[in-house]
Structure of J domain-containing protein:
Amino acid sequence: MAPSPFTEDYYLIVGVAQDADKELIVKSYRKRARELHLDCNQGTREATEAFQRELDAQWRTTKINFEWSIFEVNRDIERLEKDIMGLVSIAAVEAAEEAQRNSWTTLFLSFIQKKKVEDSEEVKEQKDRERQERRIETDMKERRLQATKAALADKEEQLRIKQANYEVTRMKDQQAITQIQLVMWQRGSAKAREGGTREG
């Protein structure tokens, strides 16, 4: 999965460079959040919108970073699987050659032609050594593949948790905004009634 495209520069909104590390992004986000938080700017629509933009920007930045790291891990997994398949196919070709060499037709023809089919001891040792090296390499790559898949599952779980936290935070902010708007509407209604009773 390729990273999702974005249209706004969320790094700029948060106030960090695009190559900033996660700690700096979080620190900058928290600083901007304190500046824009609704408790510090009670009742202003601009502060509410700015705070929500800040929250969205921080989430998108985090999400982009996670998606990119997941993309990289998936690419590593594909490369490891391809390497393992290559090593397995080499072993399969060698097994087919060995089976051909030990087939009854080859043995029968060698008996008729009185030729020896067997390789020298040195060639056998070299082939055996290469086979063992490939087996070791395959085992190592399979272990690395398992570890990489575990890392991928961990990153995906972290992303799911962060997304759930973001959605909960977004919902709480929306409830707070609705509550503020209700209070503002009630105050406006009360002022309108007071103005109506004074005129009457």
Notes: The helical segments are 10-14, 22-36, 45-101, 104-113, 121-199. The chain is about 85% helix and 0% strand.
